[in-house]
UniProtKB/TrEMBL annotation, chains A, B:
Keywords: DNA-binding, Transcription, Transcription regulation. Residues 76-259 form the IclR-ED domain. This is IclR family transcriptional regulator. It holds the Pfam family IclR_C. One of its GO terms (biological process) is negative regulation of DNA-templated transcription.
DNA sequence: AATTAAGTTCCAAATAATGGAATAGCGATA
DNA sequence: TATCGCTATTCCATTATTTGGAACTTAATT
């Protein structure tokens, strides 16, 4: 009963680990540090069991327990993530092309990949203000209401796509958010035809984007590149024009992957 | 040979979880994705056991297995970290004071906290180029050769300090790196007296810094703020002058924590 | 002081992890 | 194409860990 819209995508209940990950999810998704009793209610586990599980997570640095008995995400997670990010080949190869795209348009550029039902943003290049770390990078967003997400979906074979969409539970973030599998599927087909996707203020009011699909040779990374900005500055006409440079950038990233990894595969 | 001095700090072998975390550590610390056999050699576990453990980690998105059978850190780690970072109160409170310090000096400012034997960088404010995400944030560095690290150590009570230092294994990163508990302990005492610490190119040749200790009321966060830069630009005299603004910034951060959290504790 | 709530510890029973061995997959070589 | 050698995967009786109800401690409240 702890499912909440875009929550944990997979969870085949991997024995002990799976149960612990559910707890980590609970704590990291909470708006504020949780007390033991709060988690007890959310997790629906016996007190003794829950207590030991939390203790183990704290001992490993995945959670932290402050002086008031409140559990917060542990900083060891940062270390893991920093390594994960620093060495990610897909991101490393995409980096210069994202920068070029940002230069060409002056707007914010994102790189994201599909993981389960979510898009995880791997990189972001912003124009004006110095980038606010982790502001977007690492964030998981729904696939059905983001440009990158829909671009990624358009790459899936019919069957996987059907399965994935069947498993979605739609949250209406704005008036334009898709709330039915039918209309979403219809747009995905259109995107597959034309080779790029729009986000027409579907995730956040006043924010539009145009995205193109990107994937790695071995399909480990299925995602997209996007240009994002405020609706008042980015007319739909302008976005339509930008579809071309976004697709070109996507193409260059894929070419980069082929050169870097292709020969050996 | 991928052990680099500041490896896994704790690990009380928390049953099943502990063993899995050792594997996660192995993979995230590796310079390149590892194949099954590589991990087999490093982990020293029976094949069957290792295989199932890795499968569980992959199922949970903590590791990823590419088409060539190579294991890399999983992107789910990014999502966890992004949440962990975004809501960290210590960082949120410190943020404006770090920015002020950067403005005042024009050099790079760091905020780090002690976790086990490592300093984990929570934030970074850089002057020139737009911040390269995760570049430093989240990174774990040794406590005995960084300004923030030594500042943090100077806050520990004698006994804990002794225990921690006794458990260190020193890696000589540069000619100036402390390589003995004695000289380190001596400098820590000096730092405790004067209230600030230098890094005299001890971690990276050509890089100096001055740091001041910061801690939260409940001692959950013990760390420091620092100004870092190239030795040719930052003379020791200049660093000595900057000790004052760094200590002031540290004081303001602690005051911020007191205001925000103090009343209720 | 009495009462309620919050957190911690205990231990027999249930469950999951272990690890040795057999099996399957895949390139390279003959 | 058959065979070898290496790598990865599956299987299952044994072993170790987790489970969860209950008792216990501690802190807050009336």
């Amino acid at each position: 009963m702890n499912s909440n819209g875009d929550g944990p995508a997979q969870s085949r209940e991997t024995g002990t680990l799976g149960k612990l990950m559910v707890l980590l999810d609970l704590v990291t998704h909470a708006d504020a540090p949780l007390r033991f009793t709060d988690i007890l209610a959310l997790a629906g586990q016996p007190r003794g069991t829950l207590h030991r599980q939390l203790s183990h997570l704290v001992e490993e640095g995945l959670l932290e327990l402050d002086g008031d008995g409140r559990y917060a995400p542990g900083l060891r997670l940062l270390d893991f993530a920093a390594r994960s990010w620093a060495r990610n080949e897909f991101r490393l190869i995409a980096e210069p092309h994202l920068a070029d795209l940002q230069q060409a348009t002056g707007e914010t550029v994102h790189l994201g990949v599909l993981r389960g039902q979510s898009i995880i943003y791997l990189d972001k290049v912003e124009g004006r203000q110095p980038v606010r770390m982790y502001s977007q990078i690492g964030n998981a967003s729904p696939c059905y209401c983001t440009g990158v997400g829909k671009a990624a979906l358009s790459l899936l074979p019919a069957e996987s796509l059907g399965d994935l969409i069947a498993g979605l539970s739609f949250t209406s973030f704005t008036a334009s958010t898709h709330v039915s599998a039918e209309t979403l599927l219809e747009e995905i087909r259109e995107i597959a035809d034309q080779g790029f996707a729009f986000d027409r203020e579907e995730h956040e009011a006043g924010i539009r984007c145009v995205a193109a699909p990107v994937w790695s040779e071995d399909r480990t990374f299925i995602g997209g590149v996007s240009i994002t900005g405020p609706a008042y500055r980015l007319s739909m006409e302008l976005l339509r024009q930008w579809a071309v440079p976004v697709q070109l950038a996507a193409g260059r990233i894929m070419e980069g992957m082929r050169v870097r990894l292709g020969p050996r595969r």
